[in-house]
From TrEMBL:
CDD domains to which the protein is assigned, alphabetical: GST_C_8 (cd03207), GST_N_GTT1_like (cd03046)
PROSITE patterns referenced in this protein's UniProt entry, alphabetically: GST_CTER, GST_NTER
UniProt-recorded name of the protein: Glutathione S-transferase family protein
Domain GST C-terminal, chain residue ranges per copy: 84-212
PANTHER family with a match to the protein in the record: GLUTATHIONE S-TRANSFERASE GSTA (PTHR44051:SF8), GLUTATHIONE S-TRANSFERASE-RELATED (PTHR44051)
Biological source species: Paraburkholderia kururiensis
Family per similarity comment: Belongs to the GST superfamily.
Domain GST N-terminal: 1-80
Pfam families in alphabetical order: GST_C, GST_N
Length: 219
């Protein structure tokens, strides 16, 4: 039995999207990271980092959203998963790429443009983050000028992992207009039926007076 821990309005949506793409049965435990439920002894026994998502597959437990999705793709994936070692390496490459090159600056830009309360926003921080994002987004845009999906001719876990990190851009009104192929690809990814739950979530984060505290928990 598969169990996915983590509320939809968190990085858990990445793995919920994946599970829905696969069409496998799973139990959803919507553990909320904002109300202390990831810090209980029971939860820390599952993930000592106190973070969601976490996947349990019978007696096997794995955390880290990208690792969960790659595991699911390899274990249950068919066309969504890698067909050979090269595809496996490229799916891993894009998953590492998006969390190392894109995720943090995009979170910082989003926080300073939309997620923080207006008095906590710093436009200079947003500008620095957006400047950093221009390089990886140009790389992705050029890659997508040669093929429709990241691994070639079909949607795979590589697309899902990258698209799901990119979701913050439209949610926080960060324009992708300078990268039209990236933007069109992202819209194609989000149009998939399995992404609909997340598409429809109204993204809202409580705004503690302590913006740094929130940054530490979310970014
Ligand atoms: N690198 C991890 C990050 C997980 C993460 O930061 N999750 C946040 C929610 S989106 C969380 O659980 N934060 C709780 C906390 O830090 O206490 C992943 O991709 O799974």
């Amino acid at each position: 039995m598969l169990t996915l821990y983590g509320a939809m309005a968190s990085r858990a949506h990445r793995s919920i999207w994946m599970l829905k793409e696969l069409g496998v049965a799973f139990r959803h435990e919507p553990v909320d990271f904002l109300d202390g439920n990831t810090r209980t002894p029971e939860f820390l026994a599952i993930n000592p980092n106190g973070r969601v998502p976490v996947l349990r597959d019978d007696d096997f437990v794995v955390y880290e959203s990208m690792a969960i999705n790659l595991y699911l793709a390899r274990r249950y994936g068919d066309d969504l998963g890698p067909r050979d070692w090269r595809e496996d390496a490229l799916a891993t490459q894009w998953s590492f790429w998006v969390v190392t090159e894109v995720e943090k600056p995009l979170l910082l830009a989003s926080a300073n443009r939309a997620l923080f309360a207006p008095e906590g926003r710093r436009e200079t921080e947003a500008q620095i983050a957006l400047r950093k994002l221009a390089r990886p987004w140009t790389v992705l845009d050029q890659h997508l000028s040669r093929q429709p999906w990241l691994l070639g001719e079909r949607f795979t876990v590589a697309d899902l992992n990258v698209a799901t990190v990119m979701d913050l851009a439209p949610q926080c009104a960060i324009s992708l207009d300078p990268w039209p192929r990236l933007q069109a690809w992202h819209q194609r990814c989000l149009a998939r039926p399995a992404a609909s739950d997340w598409r429809d979530v109204t993204f809202s984060v409580p705004r503690p007076a302590d913006a740094l505290g929130m940054l530490a928990m979310f970014v």
